[in-house]
């Protein structure tokens, strides 16, 4: 049985981690703080966890013992010390639990089962054609059942299900799932059918959470993950928490106007960023149909062939994205900006080559913590299955992240 920590600040020592609290009622927060410290550093001794969290040695001994008994931490071989007894390093137990992530768009549902370390254990892909919400819930629950059967993982060992869908501006639009999904209680209905906790998250936020848990953003509390898919969005991490905004529309950077009077956008404005930086924009630039399942492979092949139309799109997209990043950096002053999403790795690398150097901003002029003026824009986790893997990270993040109390 997967052991859960119920409901889900920030002094720093010489290592990265969230401070604990010695208040008796905050045990759950402290358990999360221990897991967060170990996750960030791969393996830590009890003494190192004590220094990072600021908790007493006796408290850490009790917490580590409890987490080890629950199967969430495992002890490694003792390490020789300069003085005293050898200390055992503790790390996350990959098989301490599992999570399911599902990405849904207008063509496909892709589900993946990952372990506590974010490693993919099994994957299922199913073609769909803009299903109604009710039909969609039935399809997704059947995929969950099949995923557990084929991977031979008991349902009670699963923390939950994360479902990644396009952001609110395109859930029912041309690049979204289909009509009726915006107000439909997907999480509630799918939880009823699957018997598992379900969290619905937009694809950009889900990918940002995966970057935070398992990618280059694991030691960043403040960063932006720019998600390039059929549209364009961003996941915003502020003080270690995903920021959604009042209506859940934070990060809809695709609708920043970068070309006044430019291309018409489905939001009603002209010159929106996603009309130039998105797979939809790339397909339009090279004359490929966006609803063709082979469009992504064709785009990648044309890049390999040094197609002039692809090169022209990359140059224009990078120019527009620089303006969008400048606006984000000047507003949020993040530690890092990650570029990822559905772009194949070679295409993402080609875009990055065009993008750098970025326009001067408050962040780059004052330094990024890596040296004054040094750019801190980098590639994030990017793959056709990035939203599914991100969605699988959401239940783990919600379970173990030491959020505000």
UniProtKB/TrEMBL annotation:
Record's keyword terms, sorted: Kinase, Membrane, Transferase, Transmembrane, Transmembrane helix
UniProt xrefs under InterPro entries: ATPase_NBD, HTH_MarR-typ, ROK, ROK_cs, WH-like_DNA-bd_sf, WH_DNA-bd_sf
GO molecular function, a single term: kinase activity
Residues in HTH marR-type domain copies: 34-83
Residue ranges with Low complexity bias: 382-395
Lineage top rank: taxon: Bacteria
Transmembrane portions of the chain: 223-243
Region (Disordered): 363-405
UniProt family annotation: Belongs to the ROK (NagC/XylR) family.
Protein name: Putative NBD/HSP70 family sugar kinase
């Amino acid at each position: 049985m997967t052991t859960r920590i119920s409901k889900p600040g920030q002094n720093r020592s010489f290592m990265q981690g969230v401070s604990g609290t010695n208040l008796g009622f905050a045990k759950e927060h402290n358990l999360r703080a221990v897991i967060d410290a170990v996750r960030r550093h791969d393996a830590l001794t009890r003494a190192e966890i004590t220094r990072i969290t600021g908790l007493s040695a006796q408290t850490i001994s009790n917490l580590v013992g409890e987490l080890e008994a629950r199967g969430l931490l495992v002890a490694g071989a003792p390490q020789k010390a300069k003085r005293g007894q050898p200390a055992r390093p503790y790390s996350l137990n990959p098989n301490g639990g599992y999570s399911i992530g599902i990405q849904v768009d207008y063509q496909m549902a892709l589900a993946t089962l990952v372990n506590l370390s974010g490693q993919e254990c099994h994957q299922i892909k199913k073609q769909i054609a803009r299903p109604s919400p009710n039909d969609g819930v039935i399809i997704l629950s059947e995929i969950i059942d099949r995923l557990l059967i084929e991977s031979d993982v008991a349902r009670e060992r699963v923390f939950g299900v994360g479902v990644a869908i396009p952001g609110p501006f395109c859930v029912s639009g041309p690049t979204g799932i289909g009509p009726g999904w915006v107000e439909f209680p997907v999480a509630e209905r799918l939880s009823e059918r699957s018997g598992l906790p379900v969290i619905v998250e937009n694809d950009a936020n889900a990918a940002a959470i995966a970057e935070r848990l398992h990618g280059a953003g694991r030691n960043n509390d403040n960063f932006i993950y720019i998600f390039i898919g059929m549209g364009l969005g961003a996941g915003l991490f502020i003080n270690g928490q995903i920021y959604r905004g009042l209506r859940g529309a934070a990060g809809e950077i695709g609708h920043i106007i970068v070309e006044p009077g430019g291309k018409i956008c489905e939001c009603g404005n002209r010159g929106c960023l996603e009309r130039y930086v998105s797979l939809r924009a790339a397909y339009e630039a090279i004359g490929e149909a966006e609803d063709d399942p082979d469009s992504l492979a064709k785009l990648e092949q044309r890049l390999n062939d040094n197609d002039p139309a692809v090169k022209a799109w990359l140059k224009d997209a990078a120019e527009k994205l620089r303006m969008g990043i400048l606006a984000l950096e000047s507003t949020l002053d993040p530690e890092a900006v990650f570029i990822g999403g559905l772009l194949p790795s070679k295409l993402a690398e080609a875009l990055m080559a065009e993008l750098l150097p970025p326009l001067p901003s408050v962040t780059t002029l004052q330094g990024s913590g890596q040296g004054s003026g040094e750019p801190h824009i980098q590639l994030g986790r990017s793959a056709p299955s990035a939203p599914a893997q991100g969605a699988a990270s959401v239940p783990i993040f919600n379970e173990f992240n030491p959020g505000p109390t």
